[in-house]
Amino acid sequence: MTAPPTILVFDSGLGGLTVLREIVGARPDAHYAYVADDAFFPYGHHGEDEIIARVVPLIGELIAAHTPDLVVIACNTASTLVMSHLRERYQVPFVGTVPAIKPACASSKTRRVSVLGTRGTVKREYTRALIRDFAQGCDVTLVGSADLASLAERALSGEAVSDRAIAAELAPCFIGTGASDPHRTDTVVLACTHYPLLMDRLVRLAPWPVDWVDPAPAIARRVSELLGPPGRADHTGAEMIFTSKRPHTLSQALMPFFGGRVPA
Ligand code: DGL
C-alpha cells in the first residue's frame, strides 16, 4: 500500500482552517500539517517586502521538516505576493488562494461586486490585475479591512466580538440604497481566508442579502486534481503548528476543521 500524501496548509493564523476544512472533505485519505504563522500575524499589517522575506524561507524550513507532497498557501495576503517566488525556489507543487474576482463577476446580476480583503490584499498589483482582466464590465469596489481577520481569530478562540465591530468592517462593501435597488452590490468576494469563520454573522449583519464568494471549494478541487486518485480514506492524522510555539488549547474547537481528527 502506498503511503498517504501529506498536505501542508499554511496561513498567518486560523483563517486557513476554512480552506483546510474543504480539502479534508475532498481528501480524507491525506495526512495534514496545518501551520499558523501567528508569530507574524496579522500579515495585512506588514509591507510587501517583509512578507516575502518572512514567508519564502519559512516555507523552505517547513518543507524540510514535513516533506509534504503539496503545499497550500491558504492566505490571500501572502499568495498575492509569494507564489512565483515559492515555485521558483522549491520543487513541491503549490496551490495558492487569491481573490475569486472572475467567478464573482461572472455571476453578479446587478454587475456590482465588492472584494473584501486585508488592506494588503486590496492594494496588491496582483488584485488590481485580476480586476482589469476579469471584471467583465462589473463595477468592482475594493474594501480593505483593518481588523476583520483579528476579530475572526478572537471569535474562534471563544472571545466575545460585538456585532457592531463586525458590521463596521462590512458596511463599505454595500453600495446602493437597499434590496430593491437594481444597481446595488449583489456579490461579495471573501478575499481573506479568515472571513468565512464569521459566515453566520456576516449573513446576519449584511444590510441586504448578497452572494458571498468563498474560493475554498475550488481550492480543494484543485488540490485533489493535483494529488491524483484518492487512496483508502483512513484518517491518517493531523498536526497543528503555531510558529509562536504557544501551546494550543483549542483542539476541541479545531476538530471540525480537521474532519473530526484531533490535531496533535
Ligand atoms: N488569512 C489571511 C488572508 O487570507 C490574512 C489575515 C492576516 O492579515 O494575517 O489574507
Polypeptide structure, described:
By secondary structure, the protein is an alpha/beta fold. It has 2 domains: 6-97 and 217-258, 3-Layer(aba) Sandwich (Rossmann fold), CATH 3.40.50; 101-214, Rossmann fold. 40% of the residues lie in helices and 17% in strands. The chain has 11 helices and 9 strands. It has helices at residues 17-26, 48-66, 76-89, 101-107, 119-123, 125-134, 148-156, 163-170, 199-205, 216-227, 251-254, and strands at 6-11, 31-36, 70-73, 94-95, 112-118, 139-145, 187-190, 211-213, 238-242. A 5-stranded parallel β-sheet has the order 4-3-1-2-9, sandwiched between helices. It has a 4-stranded parallel β-sheet with strand order 6-5-7-8. Strand 7 (187-190), helix 9 (199-205) and strand 8 form a beta-alpha-beta unit. Helix 1 (17-26) crosses helix 10, helix 2 crosses helix 3 and helix 4 (101-107) runs parallel beside helix 6. The protein starts with 5 loop residues before the first strand and ends in a 10-residue tail after the last helix. It binds D-glutamic acid (DGL). The site of D-glutamic acid (DGL) has 17 residues, from helix 3.
